[in-house]
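Students often ask why we bother encoding 3D structure as a string. The short answer is that it lets us treat folding as translation between two languages. Here is a chain of 194 residues written in the first language.
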Amino acid sequence: MAGKVVVVVGVPGVGKTTVINEAVRQAKEAGLQFQVLNFGDVMLELALSQGLVENRDEIRKLRVDTQMALQAEAARDIAKRASSSSVILDTHAIIKTSQGYWPGLPEPVVKALHPNHIVVVEADPQAVISRRAKDQGIRNRSDDLTAEELRFTMEVNRQAAISSAVLSGASVVFVKNEEGKAGEAAAQIVALIK
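And here it is in the second language, the structure alphabet:
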């Protein structure tokens, strides 16, 4: 029996990991069978097995065509895993770089994954900035220093999610992660894998 693929995306600091962790707790309580995968971790597993890198940071230093091939291979691997149980996939719709925004779900990836749902976790920009400030020293999140910059990046993230849905036929679900209400946001994800 094939499972569902629920792709969860969000800008850094929005609380995506917190929401996913809460969704895992709720789904286990409900007795649901599923896997949680991180797209970057799957890419790393493949790159290590092929002797391409020794650590995750080296993936970004690979030739772009090699990275793209690795991305597509990771997507196929994740799709195979979803053939036996549902998958909650932690990834990014966009990656902001000094060269602009890169798609986290380019066409070959989204077509291989064929997600059922793309969940965009969002929060008030000022709350995201506050969360990032608390994480300083743990994570480097220097992008989008103002609420206005962050609003723009969040809009690009929405557009990327919609574009991925057009390619795959997935629904797009916008989940608000309000301060202290990660459980409510998580419940919306759990409902998608039932």
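Translate back mentally: The mean pLDDT is 91. Keep this in mind for the problem set.
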